[in-house]
Write a sequence for this structure.
DNA sequence: TCTTTCGTGTCATAAGTTCTGACATGAAAG
DNA sequence: CTTTCATGTCAGAACTTATGACACGAAAGA
């Protein structure tokens, strides 16, 4: 259970990749973070590292904005469906070996287990 | 068909992430590239961007070395089983929308369709 | 045993990437 | 008319990655 959440939450993507994947500007992505809509991990050098969960969330936010939804609403909406958002790969609590294990498992199930909303499932 | 290969080949990971995922040093990863064992894409700034395929390949190389196999052998071995190794996300030939589409599809099937060797499937 | 070749470590220098904070602005809300 | 929003853009600092070079223990060859 806790595993299933960890799988999608390995922080592996840098800002540039997320920008390309979501077609959002760095400014937008960081702003959504100030609005508590995403919580990327940070590497040792303080650089943001996004998880698949984060990318998904950003796409949801993008959709929400497009359909006139406001941040407060989205914030409330997300608060109920998710808890663990991202896990630092460099974390002392998770060995590389274990991290790989989780990443693989996650990729196996990335699709088909999320509610019919927006996000990776619909966009990707 | 060509799609299935593209899915695993989106170049989305920076060196630091690959290092963490494979537990290899940057030096090793670059050296294996000079040995033609991996062919990461490059972003506009000439930074390497690895795909899931690349990470997988690196883990195979790591295994191969551990079991005494030499690069020439691995090179020959890989030459027969793979062609398209990675696709630049920023490529003019692939829109972001499409890239997401492929990434998702790939993640759905990442496991369960590769020969019983080493690599992500076994390690992760 | 002496000499290469291998696979890596480590340094230095240059250049690309990302971070934070600040100023600016058109659009929407009051 | 005045705020508030969501973004753009800039600047300076700090982090990351790139390439090339020198070094070296271990393995392979002569």
């Amino acid at each position: 259970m806790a595993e299933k959440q960890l799988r999608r939450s390995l922080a592996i993507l840098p800002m540039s990749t997320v920008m390309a994947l979501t077609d959002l500007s760095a400014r937008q992505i960081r702003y959504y973070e100030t609005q508590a809509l995403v919580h990327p991990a940070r590497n040792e050098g303080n650089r943001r590292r996004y998880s698949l969960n984060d990318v998904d969330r950003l796409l949801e936010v993008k959709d929400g904005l497009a359909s006139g939804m406001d941040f407060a609403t989205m914030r409330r909406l997300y608060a109920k469906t998710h808890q663990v958002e991202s896990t630092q790969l460099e974390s002392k609590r998770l060995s590389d070996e274990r991290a790989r294990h989780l990443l693989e498992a996650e990729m196996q199930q990335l699709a088909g287990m999320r509610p019919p909303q927006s996000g990776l499932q619909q966009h990707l």
Notes: DSSP finds seven helices and four strands in chain B.
